[in-house]
Design goal:
This protein is of the alpha+beta class and about 150 residues long. The chain has helices spanning about 1-10, 25-30, 55-75, 105-110, 115-120, 140-145, and strands spanning about 40-50, 80-85, 95-100, 120-130. The longest helix is centred in the middle third of the chain and has 20 residues, at about 55-75. InterPro entries: Dimeric_a/b-barrel (IPR011008), YCII (IPR005545).
């Protein structure tokens, strides 16, 4: 049933008459690496609890301070464009990263610069993700509304 419905939708799409966006800015789209839909490929990283167990709270605090500093460094370099924690959950997910890097091996290499990952306090899964090419420019605005930096 679902397959038949999807086939019908895809058969109808060509007749919907998609039109050119009057606000389209080709130079901006090109500078952001956007395709015709204003989208591009990224790497989505799901951070999760690692297997490491460090009893020394000051050591753990230091590793997570390094984790935050590393996020800042990667953002300044334009490699990571989204980072943040997620609520407690039954899958042990801790946060997400979205990298403006499509090569999973390169992303894994960049993740090894994170002290909390190197200490196995955090682990990760990497996925290809397709989203708005404008993600990379939101950080300019965020820096203007961020009153306190972590």
């Amino acid at each position: 049933m679902k397959t038949t419905l999807l086939h019908c939708i895809f058969l109808i799409i060509p007749f919907l008459g998609f039109s050119q966006n009057p606000n389209y800015d080709k130079s901006l789209a090109d500078s952001l690496g956007a395709d015709d839909y204003g989208m591009k490929s990224y790497s989505l990283v799901m951070l999760k609890s690692g297997g490491g167990n460090i009893e020394d709270k000051s050591k753990v605090d230091s590793l997570f301070r390094g984790h935050l500093d590393n996020i800042g460094r990667l953002a300044k370099e334009g490699k990571i464009i989204v980072a943040g924690p997620v609520e407690k959950n039954d899958r042990n997910y801790r946060g997400i990263f979205i990298f403006d890097v499509q090569d999973k091996a390169k992303v894994a290499e960049l993740l090894q610069t994170d002290p909390a990952i190197k200490a196995d306090l955090l682990a990760y899964d990497i996925y290809n993700w397709y989203g708005s090419a404008a993600l990379s420019v939101y950080l300019e605005t965020h820096s203007k509304i961020e009153k306190i930096r972590p």
